[in-house]
Design brief:
Layout: H1 2-31, H2 35-39, H3 42-63, H4 70-97, E1 100-106, E2 109-114, H5 120-129, E3 142-145, H6 152-163, E4 177-178, H7 183-189, H8 201-213, E5 223-227, E6 233-238, E7 243-248
Helix pairs in contact: 1-3, 1-4, 3-4
Length: about 250
Amino acid sequence: MWYRLRAFGLHLLGSVLALSLILGSLYLGWYHWPGWYLADVVQVVTVMTGVDLVVGPLLTFVIANPNKVRRELTRDIGVIVAIQLCALIYGTVSLWNGRPLYYAFSENQLQLVQAYDINAGEAALALQRNSALAPHWYSLPRWIWAPLPKDPDESAKIVASAVTGGDDVISMPRYFKRWDEGLTSLRTQLKKVDDLGYFSGADKKVLKARMQAAGLATDQPNTMVLSGRGKPLLAVFDRNSVTITSIFKAN
């Protein structure tokens, strides 16, 4: 039994170190709050954790036997590690392709823009026309303004595309502008919590209670929805400086 426990412990330790290095790097670089929540990557992380921290070490515990020929034991553990690596690579690639690149203010809300929201063609156009805000493989999350273009024909095409489920302006970095350039427009779009249409009545009660606990006014137009793949968040602004003071979950 001691032999099995030792093998289990060593395998678990190695798995924890590998998973911590990968998830820690992705979290600190791209998925820190509110990215992890908005990207809704719980399912991918659950698969990675289940295979690498549970299935792998448990299988090692089962097959570890001091009477087994070393070559056979090495082969069996190698198969287990190979399965773990497949799950780890799958999860890492999924998280990398979905990493947050921008938090975009567009029209009347804030939206998370992930790497796979921007296709190669749009990325190339951004490099040519708007290189300062174009995405690169090493780009970290940035807060930007994504207004519709001034050209009415181009604007109409984008709106029509978004309505039919196609690309929206938030996936077209050639049109992006610096965050501070959009603050005047953003201020005009701030609303009271009760006036937001993205939350249920129960959600609004929770959000207002959390705002009050933080000493924030709930009867002022100082909020905006921050949306992504998961349930939306509430961003609360200081109206004078137009800076985000707090971000709240409704659950």
